[in-house]
């Protein structure tokens, strides 16, 4: 995804109208000088997020973060001290190393030496580093990341993804925060 997609634009307007500054950024992009998705890992995204929060912390009394999909997992891994609260918007919490039923096809393309992933209606090229990292995400590691996250948090779950709902509930249950909210949105899709 990118910061110009409709949900992120809508959220920007919503919060700005209520007096919040909104900082949106891309972990990768199509611009000439941008990092490419094939060079990304979630661990690298977590380091980027931590740097961004460290940069803006002196300018704001509180910093709130929201992450969609892998962005939710990025927040858990970064677990930056500057985070006042978080929203995990259908955050990834699938132990890919162990998943048998909820996986999308990862296809190695020898010609480009990268992986392709089928996310209908598109096929996306992802890097080998990302694929290899995903295969290390066990239940134990993911639970540890959630249990170490003690800040106030809202888990927003897309109701149209029934196969993923148990993972969203497990994420919610594992979060260490004493102040947390689970919000399923009936009929909502991942994006």
Structure overview:
- By secondary structure, this protein is of the alpha/beta class.
- The protein has 6 helices and 7 strands.
- It has a 4-stranded parallel beta sheet with strand order 1-2-6-7, covered by helices on one side. A 3-stranded antiparallel beta sheet has the order 3-4-5.
- The model has no long low-confidence stretch (mean pLDDT 89).
Descriptive labels:
single chain, alpha/beta, 6 helices, 7 strands
3D shape: globular
CA(first)-CA(last) distance: 9 Å
Beta-strand residue percentage: 15-25%
Widest sheet: strand order? Answer: 1-2-6-7
- Low-pLDDT parts are none
DSSP, total strands: 7
Percent of residues in helices: 25-40%
Number of helices: 6
Class per helix and strand makeup: alpha/beta
Q: Radius of gyration from the CA trace?
A: 17 Å
Mean pLDDT, as a whole number? 89
Largest sheet: 4 strands, parallel
Order of helices and strands: HHEHEEEEHHEHE
Sequence-ordered SSE layout with sheet pairings:
Layout lengths: L5 H12 L24 H15 L6 E6 L1 H9 L4 E7 L16 E4 L4 E6 L2 E5 L1 H7 L4 H9 L5 E6 L6 H10 L5 E6 L6
Parallel strand pairs: 1-2, 2-6, 6-7
Antiparallel strand pairs: 3-4, 4-5
Helix pairs in contact: 2-3
